[in-house]
Amino acid sequence: MDYVQRVNRAIDHVVSHLAEPLSLDDVARAAGLSPFHFHRVFKALLGETVNTFVKRQRLERALYLMSHAPRRSLTEVALACGFASSSDFSRS
Question: What kind and span of H or E run contains 5?
């Protein structure tokens, strides 16, 4: 299996588990690589770190929820997207 397929598996894992805490170890395990090696491969292929990617995905999902479910509070949106609190979401 090549690196692109492994990173795609990791991306699928991130997207399907955004509401949960995501550690580098968990995402690297989904790709079948060590955390150190996975981090290097991920950054080389996507041009951003795993942490930055996860944060961006969470923000994009939050924007989607805010525009398609306007009755939800910011706290509900933040928690549904994996942020620890609404203040964490606001800082992001």
Answer: helix 3-16
Helices (H) then strands (E): counts for the chain:
6, 0
* Residue 19 · residue 27 · CB < 8 Å: no
Judge whether 36 and 4 are in contact, CB under 8 Å: no
What's the CA gap between 42 and 80, in Å, rounded?
25
* Full pLDDT tens readout for the chain, 92 residues: 699 999 999 999 999 999 999 999 999 999 999 999 999 999 999 999 999 999 999 999 999 999 998 889 888 999 999 998 888 888 88
Is the backbone of residue 69 left (phi > 0), alpha (psi -120 to 50) or beta?
beta
Distance CA 52, CA 39 (A): 12
pTM over the 0.85 mark: yes
